[in-house]
Design brief:
By secondary structure, the chain is an alpha+beta fold. The protein is built from eight helices and four strands, in the order ααααααβαβββα. The protein has helices at about 1-20, 25-40, 40-50, 55-65, 70-80, 85-100, 115-130, 160-175, and strands at about 105-110, 135-140, 150-155, 155-160.
């Protein structure tokens, strides 16, 4: 919890600095590229975070990897403060601030098969019309959805997947049969009307 608060503070400060220089979108691209390297290359992460590696060597490596001076200076500052491990969280907070200020919403689209480019663009246009904002789509392929799609926009989920519909039917059927038991028939002697 404490780390997320610290990451948010660093992100806000760096965002304000980038905004003051009119370079938020540009800095975001450089930051995204470095964060991707940092997260995907375990050896880079270990090298930059290891206390035995001299700070000068870390700074030189960052200068080689980050072409933008402002972004590079920020990464070097995090190294100096021993906070580089927070970089992915800082990036996420920076990205949220950018999207908020730019009127952009992020939509995660989950489908059973990859979306075609045409369908992706139609979906993006429809969502932009519906929300009145620019839309960035991230696609996730998950065969478990069977068909249809699931949209995740912030905390909201719109689930139009076949798997979800099948689950609804399963629950409806389970609810419809709940409380019904097999009728119990007792063997009662029948009265024969002829003998009476």
């Amino acid at each position: 919890m404490r780390d997320s608060i610290i990451a948010r503070r660093y992100a806000r400060a760096f965002y304000k600095l980038s905004f003051a220089q009119g370079r938020v979108a540009e800095v975001l691209e450089y930051l995204a590229a470095f964060v991707e390297l940092f997260v995907e290359r375990a050896e880079l992460k270990e090298l930059l975070a290891h206390p035995a590696v001299p700070e000068e060597a870390k700074v030189k490596l960052v200068e080689e990897l980050v072409a933008d001076e402002l972004t590079g200076d920020f990464v070097k500052f995090l190294i100096e403060k021993g906070r580089l491990i927070l970089l992915p969280a800082i990036y996420e907070d920076f990205l949220r601030a950018y999207r908020r200020d730019a009127g952009v919403i992020a939509v995660e689209v989950t489908t059973a098969l990859p979306l075609t480019e045409g369908l992706r663009e139609r979906l993006k246009t429809a969502l932009a019309r519906l929300t009145g904002k620019r839309v960035e789509i991230e696609t996730v392929v998950d065969e478990a959805v069977v068909g249809g799609l699931r949209l995740t926009i912030g905390d909201h989920v719109i689930d139009g997947t076949l798997a979800s519909r099948l689950e609804d039917i399963r629950e409806t059927m389970a609810g419809a049969t709940a409380g019904f038991e097999e009728p119990v028939y007792e063997d009662k002697p029948r009265r024969d009307k002829r003998n009476t």
